[in-house]
Amino acid sequence: MGIILSIIGFFKAGGLFMFPIMLMLAIGTAIIIERFKFLKKTWTDGSTLWSKVEASIKTNCIEDAIKECSLSEAALPKVLSAGLEKAKTVKLGKDSREELENHLEEAMLDVIPQLERRTHYLPTLANVSTLLGLLGTIIGLIQSFQSLAVADPSQKAFLLAQGVSVAMNTTAFGLIVAIPIMLCYSYIQSRTIKTVDTLDAYSIKLVNLLTSE
What we know:
Blueprint: H1 2-14, H2 18-42, H3 46-58, H4 62-70, H5 75-89, H6 97-116, H7 121-149, H8 156-210
Helix pairs in contact: 1-8, 2-7, 2-8, 3-4, 3-8, 4-5, 5-6, 5-8, 6-8, 7-8
């Protein structure tokens, strides 16, 4: 209970600038939760999926490979499925390599923007939170110095210390919001890059396998 009251007191002492920083926190949290859920849904174990798809292709069972890919909503099965659908309708050979690569790249262009959606807002929210905190501090300091001009001389030191302490709350809160958002952004970005690299790697494997004959 004491901790909650301290947090409420800290928030109130920061003044009006604490509310827009809180808004940045709410938006950032919503984006982070949505991105975590989406990236978890779109990730799959590429080696496990590939071993099944590869086995089906080697036995000329393209339909079985497509069915295997259709069991998941992840990004990799969607891209592989696009290539397999192409292989089902057109007989592929060494001369078809570029055509198949273009088809897979087109499928990846549908998937990659979904992986990267809204992620780029996170560093902006972190930066805005920090800047709002600094702006709140500057405004608080200006107000403190203005109040000192009309204060009793014996109270000036106390009023200055109190004003600076309150003004610093907004900077502290801005950093408290910005640092976790940036850490989550780094993690989400690394997961996205890992997923895209997986798409690239297994797309090449699929092209090599389907055009090897």
